[in-house]
Amino acid sequence: MYFQKKRCIAMLLAGGQGSRLKVLTENTAKPAVPFGGKYRIIDFPLSNCVNSDIDTVGILTQYQPLELNEYIGNGQPWGLNKSHCCAQVLPPYARSKKSEWYKGTANAIYQNIGFIKRFDPAYVLILSGDHIYKMDYAAMIAFHEKTGADCTIAVRDVPLEEASRFGIMNTKPDGTIYEFEEKPKQPKSTNASMGIYVFNWKVLEQFLVADEENPDSENDFGKNIIPALLETGHKLMAYTFQGYWKDVGTIDSLWEANMDLLGKKPAFDIRGGERSRIYARNNALPSSYVDQDAKTVNCFIAEGSEIYGTVRHSIISTGCFVGENALVEDSVIMPGVTIETGAIVRHAIIGEGTRICRGAVVGGAYGPKEKRKISVTQKNAVVAENTVLLPGEML
């Protein structure tokens, strides 16, 4: 089969177990978790690729891949199904001698060297499937070319008190990386790695092979590949990104990122022009109905929903129902949820297809000095009539 040579292809790591999202990822891969009313987390890096004119994306899946594979399909929603484009799901596969899981981020790319070689790219862009942001990868690749780097790593400035949670890139004034520290107790800088890399393909291939042959390696980009490049004198550059970016790998961060969409001047404006549009696979649903007695304040209401109660500062996803005298406040309601008459939902993430029965209470309000506790239900859960799911509890 003939494959067109590409200047750059993207490899999207979408196989993480997502255990910190607890019940939300018991049966769903983390990148397939709903976000923002009508999207999935993976829509953001995929849309960034399309908006950056990167039309070949390998999507590396592993845990609970069925729903994610069905969602991606042939890449049509993102325009990646044309003759010169490609959105290909790449699960671990059986070889002639053995079959194995992806052992780490570097091993996942190593196992797919054959896919990359089909396109003989000059550059390979490595992405994560669990971040919410808009980014022009083309600008990062242009920076990589201009500086003559072997590897360019996207970084963002973080508060010094938070820097110990990240991999930190220590740089010279011109952005050259001279040292990498993994979650340092006393960080020397605040340049936090975003887990977004541009590599010269020939250099990356060489180091992936060497890393796989090292029995002591953890087969990880941050722990092994990047330090090895530094040790051997290769040129690494830091590319500073100043836009909105959030790792939604925890319950709190997923809730916060959804809340960041709300308001007249949201922290993250999901709307945008042609070059920053977020594409998604959506079912054709009728327009939402908001009853004359309903009350809606500062909320997203996606198509196919019916609202009869009160919704404040919340995300209502596609195909939801909020009954009379029900209250939804400071919450993320995922697709297909039914909230019956008189039910109360506060500071919660309600999983797809959940039914909150009449008079049930999920979560609760908290004071300004109290620690926020997010209540969560898994997919297709049922909160029985007149029962209470306490703040922070999971069903």
Describe the protein's architecture and organization.
This protein has 395 residues and is of the alpha/beta class. The chain is 18% helix and 26% strand. The protein has eight helices and 30 strands. A seven-stranded mixed beta sheet has the order 5-4-1-6-11-8-12. A six-stranded parallel beta sheet has the order 14-17-20-23-26-29, with no helix packed on it. The protein has a six-stranded parallel beta sheet with strand order 15-18-21-24-27-30, with no helix packed on it. Strand 9 and strand 10 form a beta hairpin.
Beginning-to-end CA distance, first to last residue: 49 Å
Shape from CA axes? globular
Helical proportion, percent range: 10-25%
| Rg computed from alpha carbons, rounded to a whole number of angstroms | 22 Å
Number of helices: 8
How many strands, which pairing sense, and closed or not: the largest β-sheet? Answer: 7 strands, mixed
Q: Which percent band covers the strand fraction?
A: 25-35%
- Enumerate the strands of the largest sheet in spatial order, edge to edge or round the barrel: 5-4-1-6-11-8-12
Unreliably modeled segments: none
Count of strand segments: 30
